[in-house]
């Protein structure tokens, strides 16, 4: 007998202002509240499907564990315009304040650890830093499209190195992602409404460029030689 059971999932999210866990869960309905349907397949196999009630939702209690920043603060925990947040393995976390053009690192208890970068064009400085990524070595990657580079920082020691990176998306929050520690995926728009997924190595060299399937008309085959702006 094969049994197929549907299990509801619940997303848990965290914000910078209140890093919290969810506790005191009153879970979904018990198995006795489910509807059981049995039917026989052509092969003779009896299939049992358990369907939970649809009018029952989990009840959660939000418990605040950590609050960082105050409305009238004047120190590094006074945030203006955040465009990046990553959590390190040891519980520290880093934020990118794009208004101040600063990369700030905090301990697991919310205490300020370090501030890196400032407005400027020198090594480790920013003109329009607009995002933040974390690699497998615990280093922080900050794209700065107006400076034409990707800068890498050690959370404690600061600036490590940078790589040239040309990107035409100004003023928008970074939507790229570090994937498997050795590739950076970056959706981008080319001529018309076409969108590509650009793939970079860790030296910010473009290694591939793939059309997003949803942008290609049904039945149209991908021709790498006729894609404006695409590298294949």
Q: Quick gist of this model?
A:
By secondary structure, this protein is mostly beta strands.
Topology:
Layout: E1 2-5, E2 18-26, E3 35-40, E4 46-51, E5 59-67, E6 82-87, E7 93-97, E8 102-106, E9 112-116, E10 133-134, E11 140-144, E12 149-154, E13 158-164, E14 177-179, E15 183-189, E16 195-200, E17 206-211
Parallel strand pairs: 1-4
Antiparallel strand pairs: 2-5, 3-4, 6-7, 7-8, 8-9, 10-11, 11-12, 12-13, 14-15, 15-16, 16-17
Give a written overview of the molecule.
- This protein is mainly β and 232 residues long.
- The protein has 2 domains: 64 residues, no CATH class; 159 residues, 6 Propeller (Neuraminidase), CATH 2.120.10.
- The chain contains no helices and 17 strands.
- It has a 4-stranded antiparallel β-sheet with strand order 6-7-8-9, with no helix packed on it. A 4-stranded antiparallel β-sheet has the order 10-11-12-13, with no helix packed on it.
- A hairpin with a 5-residue loop joins strand 6 and strand 7.
- The protein starts with a strand and ends in a 21-residue tail after the last strand.
- The N terminus and C terminus are likely disordered.
